[in-house]
Design a protein that fits this description.
The chain contains 15 helices and 24 strands. It is an alpha+beta fold and 452 residues long. The strands form seven sheets. Strands 3-10-11-17-14-13-12 form a seven-stranded mixed sheet. A five-stranded mixed sheet has the order 21-20-22-23-24, with helices on both faces. A three-stranded antiparallel sheet has the order 4-9-8. It is globular, with a radius of gyration of 25 Å. Bound molecules: adenosine-5'-triphosphate.
Length: 452
């Protein structure tokens, strides 16, 4: 990680360069919601496409899914979310500000690891803990983080539904459909990318803790005897993935989550934590979910959710290994890892050293000046050649050449190609490397090979 990546700089660059804007911005913003602008959505799409390729498409044993966000409330009752997806909340008795009780303890130097909601409540009382404004706190209460909504015109209990707080349940709810339609052999996985919603008590740290976010989740179904092997496999796969997107290994730490802090369904969880500028926080989770979900859904729905091993002639309820990756936390870790400052030609420069595979723009093509029609048409010609062969090539003629380089540096474009007067004579262009700023002269005919 670059020493210079503060949150202030990242947030400001993200807004200035059209990556990420506060949600409902023209009305003053809405806490916990963010809008991805032109370069943000390109970066996000590159990340999700790469995940899909690595975790789904390149695997013969993994199938894709895109399930509905709203499902019957039975799904969330069986999964345990209706009863148990709660956080402990306390409020400042003077100004009414609400806090997640464990975060409040953490911020005041206590370690809430392993504390139950009751422990947290006692701890606050015994230590006479106050709000950050120094005011007394309310009693600790619990708060379910699922957003409720109604389906159809009815308002009764029957029409109640929830915006999904994780994509995983859509996978479990489709286990039987996939078994019956594509007949996979155990072990096999089902992968899904999609939005998830959690009514976080105190969204914070930019896109790190949002109320609407995206997940890339894989449920990998295995024979119960083999869970450890596949847990280790996906542990390695997560490391391989983090290398691909340019996260510095030294900024990542595995945390073996102690039993008392694991979700109710998990027998083993490793959190992959990242050194964000605001501290070391969970980037991803890898969980051994046992057969909890399939068994709960089988029991509530009355459907057979198991696998028939024809060789052994035995029925097993598969166990599940789940690598769960947040898209937004990935994007933030990517920005933090890629952020650089240096000096070029006596001027301070900011650039994003993004891996080529995920940089929003792969190559930018410029004419040296926009008011010379032969330069413009030659640059357009080069742009068309590259565009056919390389994804994400853009053409830009606005502002001075220095400004255009600075813009592309901040977007993280690995290469800029400039057409100048010499191009018209000798068919060569300048190729500038983002990280070193080095410029090479290349023949147009050699350009594709070099950039590819
Ligand atoms: P935390 O402890 O930080 O609240 P969690 O343990 O509840 O996170 P999981 O339920 O394991 O998170 O969710 C899987 C992944 O989804 C997380 O590793 C993270 O990448 C992402 N995620 C979870 N909550 C949020 C959120 N509020 N905003 C953005 N991403 C999130």
């Amino acid at each position: 990680m670059s020493e210079k990546a503060t949150m202030e700089k990242i947030v400001s660059l993200a807004k200035r360069r059209g990556f990420i804007f506060p949600g409902s911005n023209i009305y003053g913003g809405l806490s916990g919601f963010w809008d991805y602008g032109p370069y943000g959505v390109m970066l996000k799409n590159n990340i999700t496409r790469l995940w899909w390729r690595i975790f789904v498409e390149e695997r013969e044993d993994v199938h894709g899914l895109d399930s509905a966000i709203l499902m019957r409330q039975d799904v969330w009752q069986a999964s345990g979310h209706v009863g148990g997806f709660v956080d402990a909340v306390v409020s400042d008795t003077v100004n009414g500000r609400q806090f997640r009780a464990d975060h409040l303890l953490e911020d005041q130097g206590y370690d809430p690891t392993g504390m139950s909601i009751e422990d947290i409540s006692n701890h606050i009382k015994e230590n006479n803990i106050k709000s950050p404004n120094g005011n007394p706190l309310s009693e600790v209460s619990t708060f379910n983080m699922m957003f409720e909504t109604c389906i159809g015109a009815g308002k009764g209990e029957e029409s109640k539904s929830y915006l999904r707080p994780e994509t995983a349940q859509g996978i479990f709810a489709n286990f039987k459909n996939i078994m019956d339609s594509v007949h996979p052999q155990l072990p096999f996985g089902i992968g899904q990318i999609g939005k998830a919603f959690r009514n976080e008590i105190a969204p914070r740290d930019f896109i790190f803790r949002a109320r609407e976010f995206e997940q890339m989740e894989l449920e990998y179904f295995v024979h119960p005897d083999e869970w450890e092997k596949w847990f280790d496999h996906y542990r390695e796969e997560i490391w391989r993935w983090m290398d691909m997107i340019g996260l510095d290994r030294d900024s990542i730490h595995e945390l073996e989550v102690p039993a008392e802090d694991r979700a109710h369904y998990s027998k083993r969880t490793i959190d992959f934590e990242f050194d964000y500028p605001f501290g070391r926080k969970e980037l991803y989770g890898l969980a051994y979910r046992t057969d909890f979900d399939l068994k709960s859904h089988a029991s509530k729905s009355g459907q057979e959710l198991s696998y028939l091993d024809q060789e052994k002639n035995e029925r097993v309820v598969p166990h599940v290994i789940e690598p769960s990756l947040g898209v937004d936390r990935t994007l933030l870790a990517v920005l933090v890892s890629a952020y650089r400052e240096d000096e070029m030609n006596g001027e301070k420069r900011v650039f994003l050293s993004l891996p080529v595979a995920i940089a929003p723009v792969r190559v930018a093509v410029f004419p040296l000046m926009k008011n010379k029609s032969d330069l413009v048409s030659k640059a357009r010609e080069v742009f068309e050649i590259l565009k056919k062969e390389i994804p994400r090539v853009i053409y830009d003629e606005s502002g001075s050449i220095g400004k255009r380089y600075r813009r592309q540096d901040e977007i993280g474009t690995p290469h800029c190609v400039t057409v100048d007067f010499d191009t018209l004579d000798d068919q060569t262009v300048t190729v500038r490397d983002r990280d070193s700023g080095e410029q090479k002269r290349l023949k147009i005919e050699d350009l594709l090979a070099e950039l590819k």
